[in-house]
Design goal:
Elements (H helix, E strand, L loop, with lengths): L12 H17 L44 E5 L38 H10 L16 E5 L8 H10 L8 E4 L14 H13 L7 E5 L8 E2 L3 E2 L24 E7 L17 E4 L7 H4 L20 E4 L40 E5 L2 H18 L5 H11 L10 E2 L5 E3 L3 E2 L5 E2 L10 H8 L9 E2 L3 E2 L6 E2 L7 E7 L6 E10 L11 E6 L5 E5 L12 E5 L10 E9 L11 E11 L1
Parallel strand pairs: 1-2, 1-3, 3-4, 4-7, 7-8
Antiparallel strand pairs: 5-6, 9-10, 11-12, 13-14, 15-24, 16-24, 17-24, 18-23, 19-22, 19-24, 20-21, 20-23
Length: 589
């Protein structure tokens, strides 16, 4: 099953025979399980016109058979509301544990027939297993609470209610957040006091262990659509990512695990937003379309004009019940929108696979990847409920699998690096702005979680400013602007780094920047924070907060250097702006 990732468990032939029998029985118990390649992938035919690459799954392997299923772990889903009476979710929903921000009730079931997102996310995490219907969750015995802030005002007060402040949030161990900015092109603006006002209460949850907050990185690698102004991403940005994960303020919090998406081939999902704040990757797939289904009612030639990724596997999960609600609904003839089509064999009440329309096969995005990680965290916390959020982050980072190992740096014509590929830090940890520390591996994470010795007391340097005596001109690669902060008496082993910087370097609105911003650790590891080529909707290269996650297990003590380069500046040309300030915070143990 998993030889390509060198699975470390050795099973006897007799045990393998028993497990094979158990797997067949489980598939009968959850009829759509065979299509859930993210749970078990042996290269089988699934929904979509291509097959998944064998072994590209979450590494759950035998955990469910050993009853590691998330039992006793409550997962909060901050999203659109979940259909709490869905036949494949209801048994795992905490009675009176959810919250509807619109009417003040404990029933967040959507009234909008298109609001299926939260129900699909919840199913990825904890759809009931072995009940004779539908699908199975990553943590099929975890309990669910739904907070429908995307159906409401989607404001900070509602986030705080679901994260720590509301009575329904008090026993939530894992918080899934498959949401982000609709226009993720703005650099962060947040004061140190504002940051503390979020991170401190987040850390105090679970009796001081901290809720594990899982956050989608975003879906803006190649596209940032605007409902009024159309596509906001310049084509030149597509090779490094239109948007960057650091643009999402919450993705930079110390308490948050920011999740990128990989597809069924073990590569970056076409949409997955990259960035220095990505921690790990989950499985989000692609689009799950099938040409034979699409072509039934689509205009002539429509399927042929679609990019190939439309027909690669997506994630199969729960959908709003019935054939007039959600993603899976009966076709509308003649079709006006893509949603009017049946996109694969699962869709409509005429489906030979499942005619209930209670499930969908086109769920994707980092919205789908994040709940795969939340489910894995629930498995970890069942195995060891005493893990802190820091322990969970560390275990995920040190057990995730390096996929797409040949991901290369993006360079310009003269070889200047615009965006790095996989890099290995001084502690031997491989990191990529596309994948973070890699694709989560449930079996390895649970194995490490069992009996894990806590990381111990947090060592926090606090925010330390650089003493920049004069503005530093931002030159080309031969004459970069630099600012340095020396950390002494800090963490012996880094867990997280946050930075802020200011400059007067002008940015062209929604045009690719030629600036490259890097952070260099005391051990010499270089991490690219802002790749040259990214686009922004701001006037200057200035941000208050960016997580730079590439340095885990390195020493936190010594000189940390920010380097800013204008990759397009000709030798001898006048610089366009200056680096004016830099600050850093190093956390670890």
């Amino acid at each position: 099953m998993r030889q390509i990732f060198k699975k470390r468990t050795a099973l006897s032939l007799a045990t393998l025979a028993v497990l094979a029998s158990a797997t067949a029985h489980a598939q009968q118990g959850d009829p759509l399980y065979r299509y859930q390649w993210h749970l078990m992938n042996y290269g089988q035919q699934v929904l979509g016109d291509t097959r998944p690459v064998s072994g590209i799954d979450l590494g759950i392997d035998d955990l469910h058979d050993y009853n590691i299923r998330g039992k006793g772990v409550i997962v909060g889903v901050l999203d659109e509301g979940t259909e709490i009476r869905h036949p494949d979710l209801a048994a795992n929903v905490v009675p009176n544990g959810s919250w509807n921000f619109n009417d003040g009730s404990h029933d967040p079931t959507p009234t909008n027939p298109d609001a299926a997102h939260g129900t699909s996310v919840s199913g990825i995490i904890a759809a009931v297993g072995w009940n004779g219907i539908g699908v199975r969750g990553v943590a099929p015995s975890a309990r669910l609470k739904s907070f429908n802030f995307l159906d409401s005002d989607a404001n900070n007060e509602q986030i705080q209610y679901a994260w720590w402040d509301g009575p329904e949030s008090k026993d939530v161990a894992v918080s899934n957040n498959s949401w982000g900015s609709t226009i993720p092109l703005f650099l962060t603006v947040v004061s140190e006091n504002e940051l503390a006002a979020w991170e401190n209460p987040m850390s105090a949850t679970r009796g001081g262990l901290g809720t594990v907050y899982v956050k989608a990185a975003g879906n803006s690698f190649a596209s940032v659509p605007h409902p009024l102004f159309g596509e906001l991403c310049p084509a030149s940005a597509a090779q490094v990512g239109c948007s960057q994960s650091i643009n999402d303020t919450e993705a930079n919090y110390f308490n948050v695990i920011t999740v990128a998406a990989a597809n069924a081939a073990g590569k970056r999902s076409s949409y997955s937003t990259p960035g220095a704040s990505v921690w790990v990757s989950g499985l989000g797939g692609e689009y799950g379309w099938e040409r034979a289904s699409v072509s039934v009612n689509a205009p002539a030639g429509f399927a042929d004009r679609q990019p190939a990724v439309r027909f690669d596997p997506a994630i199969v999960t729960t959908d709003l019940s019935g054939c007039v609600n959600g993603y899976n609904a009966n076709a509308v003839v003649p079709p006006e929108f893509v949603s009017d089509l049946n996109l694969n064999r699962l869709e409509s009440d005429q489906s030979a696979i499942d005619g209930t329309c209670n499930y969908g096969g086109t769920m994707n995005g980092t919205s789908a990847a994040a709940p795969t990680v939340s489910g894995v965290v629930a498995l970890m916390l069942q195995a060891n409920p005493k893990l802190s959020f820091r322990d969970v982050k560390y275990i995920l980072a040190t057990t995730s699998r390096r996929i797409d190992p040949n991901q290369a740096a993006v360079t310009n014509a003269d070889g200047t690096v615009l965006s790095a590929g996989w890099t290995v830090n001084a502690a031997g940890r491989a990191f990529s702005n596309w994948y973070g520390y890699g694709l989560v591996d449930a079996t390895m994470a649970v194995t490490r979680a069992t009996g894990f010795k806590s990381l111990g007391r947090l060592v926090d340097s606090g925010w330390q400013p650089a003493q920049v005596a004069a503005a530093q001109p931002i030159g080309n690669v031969a004459a970069p602007a630099r600012a340095t902060v020396r950390i002494a008496g800090g963490a012996g082993r880094v867990e997280a780094v946050q930075i802020g910087m200011a400059s007067d370097y002008p940015l062209d609105f929604l045009e690719s920047t030629t600036l490259r911003v890097s952070l260099i650790s005391p051990s010499g590891t270089r991490a690219i924070v802002v790749p040259a080529g990214a686009a922004f909707a701001v006037d200057t290269m200035t941000f208050d907060l960016a997580a730079v996650n590439a340095f885990i297990d390195e020493t936190g003590n010594g000189d940390w250097t920010l380097e800013v380069v204008d990759t397009a500046l000709a030798t001898g040309a006048e610089t366009k702006g200056n680096l004016t300030s830099f600050k850093i915070r190093v956390l670890g143990h």
